[in-house]
Amino acid sequence: MRKNLYIILVTVTLVLFGVILVFAKKPTKQVAGLKERTGSIALSAEWLDTKKAIEGLLSTIAANPQNNKAKLNLAQAYIQEARVTGNHGYYDKAALDLLDDVIQNEPKNFDALCCKATVLLSQHHFSDGLVIANRALPLNPNSAFIYGLMCDANVELGNYPEAVKMSDKMISVRPDNRSYSRISYLREIHGDLPGAIYAAKLAVSAGFPGLEQSEWTRMILAHLYETTGHWDTAEYHYRTALLNRPNYAFAIAGLGRVEKAKGNYKEAISYFEKAKSMITEYSFSDELTDLYRLTNEKEKAGKSAREVIAMLSPMANADESSNSHGHYADKELAYAYLKVNDTDNALKHALLEYNRRPENIDVCETVAWVNYKKENYMEANKMINKALRTNCQNPSLLCRAGLIKIKAGEKQKGIELINKAFHTNPTMADIDLKKETSTYISNI
Q1: Separation of CA 247 from chain center
Q2: How confident is the model at residue 24, as a pLDDT?
Q3: pLDDT band with cut points at 50, 70 and 90 for residue 427
Q4: What is the rounded distance in angstroms from the CA atom of residue 156 to the CA atom of residue 192?
Q5: Domain 142-246 has CATH 1.25.40.10
Q6: Burial category of 32 from C-beta neighbours within 10 Å (exposed 0-12, middle 13-18, buried 19 and up)
Q7: In 10 A of CB 296, how many CB atoms?
Q8: pTM for this model (two decimals)
Q9: Would you kindly state where each structural domain of the chain is located, as residue ranges?
Q10: b/e burial code for range 238-263 (CB count within 10 A of at least 16 → b)
């Protein structure tokens, strides 16, 4: 009797132990799958290769959920797919989930840390991105990539001297299109537009034609030609990009800006509507808002403006300390609210962005301009002085600064700034700024 009771107790214990093991076993996380591309970007041979590679990685992970190398490769593929499709909301989260799994198992995986920093910077989580980049740096101090990440983070946080140091280190390790493009941007924000163009040319020549990264670098060069009023040269680079990479949405939008500068608004609208149909990108709708107003299509303009706000709103109020996935877009949202004359919400979002990165000159310009629209001229003047501290010669910045200075009682200084803006770019495409500054241009 005792023997039978002993056998029963042992059996029950083993069964209970097995149940505990089943429930204690860590559940396998569901890996996000690949989304089908639609429209013209689904027609390229590149998409077929990408799809095949990603499906292979998904099969590998399904067979072995502990395969960290496959997870890292899939995260990298998703980061690139976000760039190509504009679907950052989906692919950024998918990549971060994969990278967090890898880092949890391999805390010193340099590539995984760099990829996570890349996604965080793309989402405008600049402080968090810099923390991760600093964590990765000691693991491979001879990597150009890590210095590029640290350069980007410091630029966006307004730590410009540190950003310059990081870009110098990057280019000393590997002079390529990525390092040249960062040099170009730093020269641009420090007022050296000829030097910025020269570095951007080096970046373009260092890239392989047709790759998304290469043609994005060409967009940087074309943008600089726009900034300096060389619209024909900008158009040449947009058309070259389309020869190298057909149906590249950003090049199509670039042609829209060229047509807008020429006053061909209907043609500009056609280009932006085409670009908008191809990828998810709020700036295309933002440009369309202005163009619809120029063609007196008020209903379309209002719809487009509301669409921009809806696209930017979901994570705009997020706390910087939050670990949730999402894209901070308060700076962009501030300008979007100005277009619907909601200056209260514009100021709210401008200040949210300012609280995250008070030293960034673009953010300071945003706060200054919103205060100008609210007729808070003294506060606007204080903030525009911060925005001007790197000697950036962007014509839109100079025009806004000039208008603010005039309202703040520094009329001569304001007129000088406006004059400098139109000397840099006599054919500036911002119609509203051209109208608002026209009185002062005639007085110079």
Answers
A1: 20
A2: 44
A3: confident
A4: 19
A5: yes
A6: middle
A7: 9
A8: 0.89
A9: 47-102, 142-246
A10: bebbbebbebbbbbbbbbbbbbbbee
User: pLDDT tens-digit profile of 301-314?
Assistant: 999 999 999 999 87
DSSP state of 176: S
CA pair distance 38, 78, nearest whole angstrom: 16
Tell me which amino acid residue 103 is: I
Provide the CA 34 distance to its chain's centre, in angstroms: 22
Length of the chain: 444
Q: Are 441 and 418 in contact (CB under 8 A)?
A: yes
C-alpha 146/C-alpha 140 separation (Å) is: 8
Whether the Cβ atoms of residue 114 and residue 103 lie closer than 8 Å to each other: no
pLDDT (tens digit, 9 = 90+) per residue, 29-58? 789 999 999 888 888 888 999 999 999 999
Structure tokens at 390: 């790197």
| Residues whose CB is less than 8 angstroms from the CB of residue 291 and which lie 6 or more positions away in sequence, other chains included | 256, 260, 265, 268, 269, 272
Residue the block writes with tokens 């060069």: 221
> What is the pLDDT at residue 281?
95
